[in-house]
């Protein structure tokens, strides 16, 4: 999830990927994340099958989020660092783990990957029986992040704003910790994915679980006026949380003692 994530030893490991390759990896990784988590929310979390036994609910969406990041980090992490999230990119830059000059390119790639993923989901959803009128907008509104009408639990603005800041900050602290030079090699994607699953279980009932401006925007663009009007909250709050973690990690956790 960062440029310091250890890679397996190979002849290619010593060759730095080009910027184009890294941006492609970020776009594909973000596509995987959004397609997985939003697809689960759209097609499986509210599935009406039999007595409801096929409905995966919040737990299923949380697992889809965590597993998609584990898969993406192992697959694309050796190429781009596996951010898949503008807040992560900004947090890593704030922590001096990522070059500020590459931030804009990464964020654009992530936004493109997320929007392409949600566009394909819209196309698939359009083939559902009874997909007429406002059906598509209503479905994407239900998968969008926000407060009041967009909050699964009906939580207000400040509840959503606070939980998105805290959970994203915690997420960045974990990323910075498990990709530290003193961390055990090879386990970062697992720890990061499990952390996402954990914070999603906390936040989905409150905000629908963003932590990721690319994911928030990808659903909001098809979710109607409420989703578009509120998307700024789950863009700004995760960025604030990530920057807090990035700017404070070294002072809090990276101190050394004199010999």
UniProtKB/TrEMBL annotation:
Which top-level group of life is the source organism from? Bacteria
Question: Keywords of this protein's UniProt record, alphabetized?
Answer: Membrane, Transmembrane, Transmembrane helix, Transport
Q: Which organism is it from?
A: Humibacter ginsenosidimutans
Transmembrane spans: 27-47, 54-77, 107-126, 155-176, 183-207, 227-253
Q: What would you give as a GO molecular function for this chain, any one?
A: channel activity
Q: Give the UniProt entry's GO cellular component terms.
A: membrane
UniProt membrane topology term: Multi-pass membrane protein
What is the designated name of this protein?
Answer: Aquaporin Z
Can you tell me which family this protein belongs to?
Answer: Belongs to the MIP/aquaporin (TC 1.A.8) family.
Q: Enumerate the Pfam families for this protein.
A: MIP
